[in-house]
Amino acid sequence: MAGVITTGNISPLLVEGIKNVFGQAYEKHGEQWPMLFNTETSNKAFEQDQQFEGFGLAPVKQEGAGVAYDSQQAGFSPKFTNLTYAKGFIVTKEAMADNLYHLFEKRARALAFSMQQTKENVGANVYNRGFNSAFLMTGGDGVELFSQLHINGPSDSTTFSNELATPAALSETSLEDLLIQINEATDPRGLRIALRGERLIVPPKLGFEAERILNSTLQNDTGNNAINAVRATGMLPSGHMVNNYLTSDTAWFIKTNAPDGMKMMNRQSVSFDQDMDFGTSNARFKADERYVAGWSDPRGAYGSAGV
After folding, report:
1. Measured distance CA(240)–CA(49) in Å, rounded
2. Where is 85: in which H helix or E strand?
3. Which of 28, 135, 149, 263 has the most CB atoms less than 10 A away?
4. What digits encode the pLDDT tens for the residues 107-154?
């Protein structure tokens, strides 16, 4: 049977003389995906959000004239379909009995590590694929996560951007430019909103640069006796994080306070189970989890592909 671990797979571990068995599992990073998304609980096969615009500006009412009445329209409707992620392994009775080095206790830890790594990669891939037009949100506004062509709303067909017009490497200047862009955001009817950056998200190769930019007392990498404006204004209250699952060495992102922006829907927490097949006496171990990551309002994250 494919995937069954037999004594032949672990022959070095059937005799004494091995000092250590390594490679099964390593120390893992703390959970990083919760800093990329707002977390919600799901209780259905899929969850659906609905964009619904507010009202426009109020016009002047002339004396004796009637009030101008506004209307509202529904916009796009992003759909989050929960997926099941599962993995397991099968061990023969003989392999369980004859291994001398507690191998399968380590395999159980390796299975837990695999499930955690899977969720981190699924979450980070929403950002990794964010500039790729091949990856769209089902029922969304029809463009990729980071785009200059997001539609404002059903009554306002103009577009807004949640990426730098010209991709730029992470620097004090480019970070300020993107924070200004966030600060100038409007709602689906074109009204100004208090959108703010919460956290800068960078890959490992930009971690030190992010630290210098955000935490220098004075302006970074210059001889100017000027304050660090981003730090002084507190425009990124949660600072920055290094995400070890980002695949680009140059792309960087800002998660915002948009209430229905980046979302991780959790349908079922990771569950571990085991049983024994009656006919073969093989032991079977498995883990599964259900969730989906995506976005409703693309104002939830802004980014630059870097250079």
Report:
1. 29
2. strand 83-91
3. 263
4. 777 888 899 999 999 999 999 999 999 999 999 999 999 999 999 888
Residue 289: closest CA among 304, 270, 303, 275: 270
So what's the pLDDT on residue 275?
87
What's the CA gap between 186 and 151, in Å, rounded?
12
**Rounded (10°) CA dihedral 128, 134, 184, 40:** -60
- What pLDDT is stored for residue 66 in this prediction? 92
Note the residue count of the chain: 307
Is 39 strand, coil or helix?
strand
Give the pLDDT confidence score for residue 222 in this predicted structure: 60
Over 90: is that where the pLDDT of 298 sits?
yes
pLDDT score of 15: 45
Q: Which residues pair with 227 in a beta bridge?
A: 218
Dihedral sign of CA atoms 139, 140, 142, 145 in order? negative
CA distance 149 to 145: 10
Give me the phi and psi of 15, to 5 degrees please: -130, 155
β-pairing verdict for 197-202 and 240-242: parallel
Neighbours of 264 (CB within 10 A): 21
Contact 261, 297 (CB under 8 A): yes
Half-sphere exposure of 300 (CA within 13 A, CB side): 21
pLDDT per position as a tens digit, 230-262: 988 999 999 999 999 999 999 999 999 999 999
Q: Cβ contacts of residue 6 below 8 Å, gap of 6+?
A: 92, 94, 95
CB 175 within 8 A of CB 237: no
178-206: b (≥16 Cβ within 10 Å) or e: bbebbeebbbbbeeeeebbbbbbbbbeeb
